[in-house]
What does this fold into?
Amino acid sequence: MRKEKTRDMVLCAMFVALIVAGAFIKIPIPVVPFTLQYLFTMLAGLLLGGKMGALSVCIYMFLGLAGLPIFAQGGGIGYIFQPSFGYIIGFAAGAYVTGNIANKTSRPGFKRLLSANFLGLGIVYLFGMAYYYLISDLYLGTPIGLWPLFLYCFLLAVPGDIALCIVGAILGKRLIPLIKERRI
It folds into this structure.
C-alpha cells in the first residue's frame, strides 16, 4: 500500500513537471498560444485516472498562482485575471473527465481513449471560452463578440489539439497497460 502511494505521488509530480514543460513549448497564434499543456494534462487523466490526473493539474495551477512563472504567459495570483486562465481551469476538469471515462475498463481501446480525449478537449474549450468571454467583458472592459471568440479561441487552436487527442490516444493505448501492470 505504501509503495503504491509513493508510486502515485511520483507519477503525479512527474506530470506536474511535464505540464510545466508543455507550457513553454508553444506556437504563437493570436489571442491564446498553442502549447503542449493539453497533451500532458490529457495524459495525466488517461494514465493516472481522473482524480490523480486532476490533482496533477491542480498542483500545477497552485504553483503558478503562488508565483512561479510556469503558465504560458507568466504566473502569480493576478493570472486569474488573464482571459486565458479559463483554459487552465478546464485542464483540471478535462483531466478528471478524460481519466474517468478512459479507466472504466482495465484495457481501454483506442476508440474509448479517443472519445475520452475529445470530450476532455470539449470541456477545456468550454471553460476556456466562457472564462475568456467573461473576463474580457466584466474585468477588462473590452467585450469580445461571439464570432471573434469562436474564431480566435477555438477555430485557430483546435486543429492542433485534435492532433494531440490522436497522439494521446495512441500513447494511452500503449502506456495504460504498462502502468496497470506496474511496469512504470
